[in-house]
Amino acid sequence: MVPRYSRPAMTAIWSPVNRYRIWFEIEALACEAMATFGAIPEEAARIIREKGDVAMAAFSEADLARIDEIEAETRHDVIAFLTWLAEKVGPESRFVHLGMTSSDVLDTCFSVQLVQAADLLLADLDAVLAALKAQALRHKMTVTIGRSHGIHAEPTSFGLKMAGHYAEFARNRARLVEARREIAVCAISGAVGTYAHIDPRVEDFVAEKLGLAAEDVSTQVIPRDRHAAFFCALAVIASGIERLATEVRHLQRSEVREAEEFFHPGQKGSSAMPHKRNPVLSENLTGLARLVRSYAVPALENVALWHERDISHSSVERNIGPDATIGLDFALMRLAGMMEKLVVYPERMMANLESLGGVVHSGEVLLALARAGISREDAYRIVQRNAMATWTKLGEPDGRSFRANLAADPEVAGRIDTDVLDEAMDSARHLAAVDRIYAKVFGADAPDA
Amino acid sequence: MVPRYSRPAMTAIWSPVNRYRIWFEIEALACEAMATFGAIPEEAARIIREKGDVAMAAFSEADLARIDEIEAETRHDVIAFLTWLAEKVGPESRFVHLGMTSSDVLDTCFSVQLVQAADLLLADLDAVLAALKAQALRHKMTVTIGRSHGIHAEPTSFGLKMAGHYAEFARNRARLVEARREIAVCAISGAVGTYAHIDPRVEDFVAEKLGLAAEDVSTQVIPRDRHAAFFCALAVIASGIERLATEVRHLQRSEVREAEEFFHPGQKGSSAMPHKRNPVLSENLTGLARLVRSYAVPALENVALWHERDISHSSVERNIGPDATIGLDFALMRLAGMMEKLVVYPERMMANLESLGGVVHSGEVLLALARAGISREDAYRIVQRNAMATWTKLGEPDGRSFRANLAADPEVAGRIDTDVLDEAMDSARHLAAVDRIYAKVFGADAPDA
Amino acid sequence: MVPRYSRPAMTAIWSPVNRYRIWFEIEALACEAMATFGAIPEEAARIIREKGDVAMAAFSEADLARIDEIEAETRHDVIAFLTWLAEKVGPESRFVHLGMTSSDVLDTCFSVQLVQAADLLLADLDAVLAALKAQALRHKMTVTIGRSHGIHAEPTSFGLKMAGHYAEFARNRARLVEARREIAVCAISGAVGTYAHIDPRVEDFVAEKLGLAAEDVSTQVIPRDRHAAFFCALAVIASGIERLATEVRHLQRSEVREAEEFFHPGQKGSSAMPHKRNPVLSENLTGLARLVRSYAVPALENVALWHERDISHSSVERNIGPDATIGLDFALMRLAGMMEKLVVYPERMMANLESLGGVVHSGEVLLALARAGISREDAYRIVQRNAMATWTKLGEPDGRSFRANLAADPEVAGRIDTDVLDEAMDSARHLAAVDRIYAKVFGADAPDA
Amino acid sequence: MVPRYSRPAMTAIWSPVNRYRIWFEIEALACEAMATFGAIPEEAARIIREKGDVAMAAFSEADLARIDEIEAETRHDVIAFLTWLAEKVGPESRFVHLGMTSSDVLDTCFSVQLVQAADLLLADLDAVLAALKAQALRHKMTVTIGRSHGIHAEPTSFGLKMAGHYAEFARNRARLVEARREIAVCAISGAVGTYAHIDPRVEDFVAEKLGLAAEDVSTQVIPRDRHAAFFCALAVIASGIERLATEVRHLQRSEVREAEEFFHPGQKGSSAMPHKRNPVLSENLTGLARLVRSYAVPALENVALWHERDISHSSVERNIGPDATIGLDFALMRLAGMMEKLVVYPERMMANLESLGGVVHSGEVLLALARAGISREDAYRIVQRNAMATWTKLGEPDGRSFRANLAADPEVAGRIDTDVLDEAMDSARHLAAVDRIYAKVFGADAPDA
User: Which residues form a coiled coil (chains A, B, C, D) (predicted)?
Assistant: First the structure.
């Protein structure tokens, strides 16, 4: 992920130094585990821990360079690290990595990194949820037109829109919690997962210390279905971002103008057109969503490794591990800020709602006619006729409101009273269930409007 | 999905008649709900139920044709169905669909179909799990070589391979249970989800009767993140099929021949080469996995509908709903049968294991040298040298086994005893943890080998 | 592809009978080729052709059933067909398929089917191009607002929008011609492509008769990079459909209303809301585009077959072959019809253009100020200030047009004349280059506006 | 793309300094164009060019920091650059970017970068082609077994395998040439592509100088179908890499050992198993192919921008522009080196070919029996019976070769002579067409074997 879309906390998770710190932690814990049942001397484990901790605390560019230098020769990253560690730890280093294979370190480290990333993303989601909830509560009873197919349908409230996105992000949060659980797995089981040269208690010990579960069956590697499920969860979340971003883009378009991204003082919307205030954040989020979603494809292809493992997944994960989590972290926090500061125009919402002459109440009129004993087919025909008559003369001198057209329609006039018509034109009924929905979504937290 | 890869039970779920039966059930239940609190006459609900049940039970090609005829005129599938239903039910039909919108029926129906499909898929997964477990138990102690990068690594058991796939399919089963829960949702909330013309109790009633949960916030439609998560779960399962299929394809290749798909009497492997017995089932599964996986992409793109809904998701779902579930159903049952009948050749496994002169035990020799006080670097160098000497003269007259080479190496000879070498060449240690792993995977069920 | 989105001509290409006709044609041509150089008796080739032609002309359901019956036993589709053919042709059938392998027939047949499909799709594209050109010519000088980021930018013409889509579909046509060329390939080269049992002249003969090129190197199969490129071309075309569909959806939304899909008499937009006229065609096209695009993913995964071939591609192609071409054929013809009948509202376009008080001319004012010697930074500041003043009071009693605000701004008033301001507010300049662009796109065909 | 998979020449194309150099070049050329027809003073264009060239030549980290600083305030990258440029150029800078919009610069720059990237990739492909051709010529007559379904089929030559991949990469090269042409496009047409404030001759001038074509219809942006086609071409190439990498992985697996990636002295295959020599390069290429392929998905989603443009494509392209080209460049050069140094084992190929007792010649025996007047069905049955008898007793004491089994079969013995059997067992016929195929693939270049 390019720096422009990267935040430091997430980027740090994928830094070499974080990776080496996790590698050391795994190796040190494995030594401590082995020492507990006498596989290696306790003193050795103690020295490895102490000297290693010092080395990791003082880890510098020079250490990075040294490890790279060794890797250039050995062409093996874990061996390079272990050789460097041996230089720091001294003779006791011969007890490090005993009976383990590189993947024990690499895969468990990747799990730790994904768990760290998931924790950041959960915090991001909480920020999004908070921003959505605030808007939902603020605009609980702000009437706006609901649209299907981009066409005015019936009134709803802007708060309800926000509540819907809140509910989706709450589901996304639950999905991420589950995806985090899927990936929070440790494997220290040797070359083909048989524990041939290492006691399974080492795996249990390290797993517990790292807050992970021990893998049921690892085959040198942790099976990649876990990772595929993880990246799919991120893809679903990204799609939720796109849905909300698309909503904002629509609301901000010139003919709608019901809401706007906060426009920063000094910001220039266009180098050529000074009047422009563009929804660039939500457009940017749309693109980021495409990216994060796309990373699920190679993650799924990674599952079918050959036999006990091949290393084709590695180049994929070295990229999509950071790309997907950094991209999603940036997108979520951008979304949270954007929704927090979103400028909402209730008057414009009301103006738009009324701009079609009241045809948006056709559904209620249909029901009123039905209640008056007119058949569904006839009622539909009557209402559609009057709606179209209203629609086609919108804004024209001889245009009439939907209510006026209905009142003048002989098939209507004799059948329903004018106060029934008035009532049908009232948006209030459309907000009647808002309290009930809010109680489902926000629980006891939701204050009255 | 083409008929070749379709099974009747799953295909039936996506048939027009099943769809119309579910539509009627939703409409009838909604009427019954409304009758309970007096929104419509109880008698009307009773008549709708009775006459509708009769009509649905007698549903024929003629009914299909009639509905198609009406749709050709109205260009609206739900209205076409309701018109047909009115013809069957009579005047009480005016109480059907009152205050509802088409999506209330369509989306809830789609949920029911996906739940039905998920139930079939869960049964399929159980068949796969049973076949894998049987092979795992049968070959618990069948020694075979574990391979990383396609290269012999260390011994393992064939049962352990099967146990690993079993564990993955158990995870896949859990994912599908969760995906089923995600999608088991009912929405009867009207044009933009505000319950403006319908009592929310109708939704609760219908949901409960259909074994669904009522959606928290629907916006005419059930939010498509649920469906995206569902199809992603299918994609992960498909990838697990590909992993197992790839394993079988590798085991059957001419140079390996450790296992074979059952070859049907009378089957012809090739029109031109009568000697061929090809792993065509597992290759077919590989292709089906690609298909099922691909359907996740448009499902994810479906999430970002415009405002309260647009109908772009519909054409996608009319295809991937059947395609993904029918394809996966077929693939899982093919996989179950294939694994149940898989022909396994333990002697060939042993022959392959031994074919590299014993170098597969290099890891244990490395540890033995380390235990004898040789540094990791020196031990690695010694072992690699002898492994390469063995490898490069495999099958040649002056070739020697890895053990013989080691025994003749002065750097080894003086340091470790021959019985340590013998022990290092023994595959037994690699099966030592099998019991422990089986207990984790299969629990108390797992009999001793 | 479900029947709802299928047209008969394309569906027929993928019918069993068309497949068997092509299979027979390949076999018969191969026999004729072999007869020309004496590999089989001329009389045999003649009899095969004659009796086969009769059998194929009379091909019925009974023949289909007979082939299926044989396949159920042999589990091999080509052998089943050849056995059926032998029943029809008699003893000379022993000269059929001599030295050939199934893939020679299957792959060459698939090429023929894709070529047939491409020819239909090219005709579809021509229909789309014709519809776009007609709209482009009709609305060459119909002023409308151009929008970037969904925000009014500067005027353009509706015809120019259409010309842009025309140019994209012209590129798409060229891509399909190229993709057709890629796939128009014949392979009759035997089990692993060595012509071990068949003379290469047979391949040349059959290829020429079928209008195909002989593959350079086939390895039992025609390499799947050709097919991947083909399905990628369809994916790009589908994306172009989505771009145009998205434009229409935007133009039809209630607040814009600049264009509308033709609304069929008797059509019902919504079962609950009789006033609705929804852009359901373009929404449907958006979903179909997602589908067709998604088929490129498994087509790309099909490329990496194992060694000289595996059959994993087959299940993919049995589905995406028909799905992608039928879906795209339907989508293109729906698009052509939709664009042909699109209802365009020039007055509404003008009203929208003017609805922002003239700020859409800010770019030209910026340049006028620059020409008057004001620095870019100052000019930008001045124009943005006046644009925002106009924007924020749109429709309010104390609101003023952009031109009025500028005229009242002391930093502007002294610097540029009012006729310069008037000229800056004129949309004419934005159409000045239309002729030039049309000449590039439509060539000499483009009549004057 | 992570540094591990990046080569400097390609990375440099995507560096900020290269981008700014291209931006300046576009702006300077536009000024020169305007000067030619008097839109700005010639002297101004000269000064802009001279001072700008000096500034770009001396471009340093300090300049980068200054531009970033301005962008942090203006939140607009092109304005930031222009402001910096103004600081360097002085008062004449007011003539820079006159009548242009940011996308004129950004999109044309992206085209230039993609063209530069394509030129590197074409050179990479030439290196791959050279390596493949060298192996093809070296092993033109190296007999090896051809495999379908991973099962021995019939003999072929290793050179022919290489020639097949050569032909695919030659097609890939042609696809990239075409993709480069698609993307080699310049747009300088203003805010919505109408040339309202800029003379179209500027676009023509800049395009010609940059070796680009002027876009037919741009709408502020160059239409994204061009970019989608470009990234699809890269995806097809990546899939070709995977096919070849998969071949090598298969050939190197322990049971096959027909070829091996060059194993670097000092390289360690495994930290735990010193005997391992793994095909890590080809596995790595498999993963890189998955990545490059995945980037086509968001590129296709980028096509459907809203109206005249939205900026959602930008975040996608900022990532996949570098990711796809850097990743593919690295992969192609890794592939070229790998194929150049590939270690091939002809003896092992022959040993594998013979390891199935001669059943790989079953196809030729089938034809011999047919020529002897036996019906296809009988011949198939006879040959399959003897092939299976051979296969099932491979390596067993009472096992016999396919030829021996056939000779002992009474249905064979009386029908065909032993010299016919001998001839059928000869691999020579399988190489008979190699010269012909080489002539098609390599033309007059191909020396005799």
Answer: none
